[in-house]
């Protein structure tokens, strides 16, 4: 196996995005750049320099259709990972390049061994702030326990976490991944997408109320530059990025510029 540089990793991920974009256009599926990828497009016209993944989101109806119609293997190397395909354990989806291999420092998961792009479903949300906070607080609780199922027991960033982490992991694993994933999905589907005036990523929405958008603005498409290509995003990208990152055009301090702490490799012919 050949180890990939940071530049190589980004090239592989961009190729996944380009092929995903092509598939969505062919099948009339709506998707949008989101999260750090959208921030990178607006602030850097491409990847955030220290970032190492790609995030997109899809309205729940399009997300479910994607899972149903995406081929078992697209272009001979792209595979869709989803709990509904029994090849993933999180309540969102990934498209991976199976010609790559990764090794993450803090997690171990047999279903996450390849370079990827993340695909997050967007669901209906309430207008009431208190109800909204309840949804995100519940999801945050179950998501934390879900992630701990894949944490490496002997790896932690502080001494306190090294002491406490093994006990919490044991409890989380006794309860099981399926329970936490099911709870997160049930909460995310509380408000029907088609009947809601507000929408947002819930299953992996890390920013609570900042995730919420007016659906009419979310569904209006604009195009942004990313690594020399044009990709779709939602018209309310400015208020969305402010909700997630506040003053998003200002670079964060160096200590907050995080990556996935992983090594990546090509398997076989890198040009396949």
* Overall geometric form: globular
Oligomer: single chain
Q: Sketch the major β-sheet.
A: 7 strands, mixed
Helix content: 25-40%
How many distinct beta strands?
12
Radius of gyration: 18 Å
Average pLDDT metric: 89
Distance between the termini: 14 Å
Which residues form runs of ≥5 with pLDDT under 50?
Answer: none
Count of individual helical segments: 8
Name the beta content range: 15-25%
Order of helices and strands: EHEHEHEEEEHHHEEHEEHE
The helix-and-strand class reads: alpha+beta
Task: Provide a quick synopsis of the model.
By secondary structure, the chain is an alpha+beta fold.
Structure write-up:
The mean pLDDT is about 90. Helix 4 (about 130-150) runs antiparallel to helix 6. The chain is globular. It is α+β, with helices and mostly antiparallel strands and about 270 residues long. It contains eight helices and twelve strands.
List the helices and strands and how they pair.
Layout: E1 2-3, H1 6-26, E2 32-33, H2 35-44, E3 55-59, H3 60-69, E4 78-81, E5 93-97, E6 100-104, E7 116-125, H4 129-148, H5 159-175, H6 177-188, E8 198-201, E9 213-214, H7 215-218, E10 221-226, E11 229-234, H8 237-245, E12 262-266
Parallel strand pairs: 3-7
Antiparallel strand pairs: 1-12, 2-3, 4-5, 5-7, 6-12, 7-8, 8-9, 10-11
């Amino acid at each position: 196996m050949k180890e990939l540089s940071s530049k190589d990793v980004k090239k592989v991920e961009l190729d996944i995005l380009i092929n995903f974009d092509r598939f969505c256009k062919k099948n009339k599926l709506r998707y949008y750049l989101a999260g750090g990828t959208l921030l990178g497009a607006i602030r850097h016209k491409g990847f955030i320099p220290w970032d190492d993944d790609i995030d997109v989101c899809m309205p729940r109806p399009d997300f479910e259709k994607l899972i149903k119609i995406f081929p078992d293997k697209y272009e001979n190397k792209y595979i869709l990972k989803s709990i509904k395909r029994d090849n993933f354990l999180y309540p969102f989806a990934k498209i991976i390049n199976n010609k790559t291999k990764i090794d993450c420092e803090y997690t171990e998961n047999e279903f996450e061994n390849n370079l990827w792009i993340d695909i997050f479903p967007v669901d209906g949300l309430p207008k009431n702030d208190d109800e909204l906070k309840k949804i995100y607080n519940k999801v945050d609780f179950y998501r934390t326990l879900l992630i701990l199922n894949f944490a490496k027991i002997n790896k932690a960033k502080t001494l306190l976490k090294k002491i406490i982490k093994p006990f919490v992991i044991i409890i989380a694993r006794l309860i099981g991944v399926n329970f936490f994933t099911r709870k997160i999905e049930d909460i995310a589907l509380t408000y029907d997408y088609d009947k809601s005036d507000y929408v947002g990523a819930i299953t992996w929405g890390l920013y609570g109320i900042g995730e919420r958008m007016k659906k009419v603005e979310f569904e209006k498409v604009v195009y942004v530059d990313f690594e020399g290509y044009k990709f779709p995003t939602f018209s309310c990208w400015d208020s969305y990025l402010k909700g997630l990152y506040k003053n998003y055009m200002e670079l964060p301090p160096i200590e907050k510029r995080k990556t996935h702490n992983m090594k990546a490799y090509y398997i076989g012919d890198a040009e396949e």
